[in-house]
Structure formats: C-alpha cells, structure tokens
Design a protein that fits this description.
Helices cover 64% and strands 0% of the residues. The protein is built from five helices and no strands. The chain is globular, with a radius of gyration of 14 Å.
Length: 91
C-alpha cells in the first residue's frame, strides 16, 4: 500500500502546520477579543495571523479549502469567513 493510500480522505501534508497556525490564531482571538489585522502598525505576528486567515478565506471562496479545515474553522472560530460576520456573532 502506498503512502498516499494510507492517508485519510482529505488529508494534506501540511495539516500539522495548519493546526498549529489555527491554534495561534485562536490564542490571539482569546487574548485580544478580536481578529488580527494586516495594518503595518500591527505587530508582525498579528499581521502573519491576519494573512493566514485571509488565505483561508480566499481558498474557501475558490472552493480549495479542504472540508475538514472548514469544519475546524467553523467549530473553533464561528464567523471566520468575514470580519463583519465575526463581529455580528461576537459583539
């Protein structure tokens, strides 16, 4: 059986890294009470998290984001799809 055949459906090689980044985003939201921003005045780590979230949104919009990743985001960060949606849920 090949390596590819042993992987669960939807598995992506960088899932571990993706889960680490999600945990960092959740920690930021828990501490700051808001989503990260890309403003140049924001700390580099915050901008990095904001870019990561923006990439997840773009992949989702293009139907490229894996289903299990969408499920994780929906479960752990309701409203992640847009800042307006997140604010409506969390204000």
């Amino acid at each position: 059986m090949s390596e590819e055949q042993r992987r669960p459906a939807g598995f992506q090689l960088d899932d571990d890294r993706w889960l680490v980044r999600l945990a960092e985003l959740l920690e930021f939201v828990d501490q700051e009470g808001r989503l990260p921003v890309q403003s140049l005045s924001a700390p580099a780590e915050e901008r990095r998290l904001s870019y990561w979230l923006s990439n997840q949104r773009a992949e989702h919009k293009c139907r490229l984001l894996a289903g299990h990743r969408i499920d994780e985001l929906n479960q752990k960060l309701p409203g992640w799809g847009s800042t307006a949606q997140w604010r409506a849920i969390h204000s």
